[in-house]
Amino acid sequence: MALKDIAQLRRDEIAAAALEILASEGAEAMTLERVAREIGASKGIILHYFSTKDALRARVIDDALRVLGQAYRRATTSIDGAEEKLAAILNFSASSELYTQSHARVWLALLARPPEDAAARRFRRIITRRLRLQLVIPLRLVIGPMEAGPVADSLMALIDGLWLRRALEPTEIGPEAAQALLATHLEESISFLGG
Question: DSSP assignment, residue 114?
Answer without folding.
Answer: -
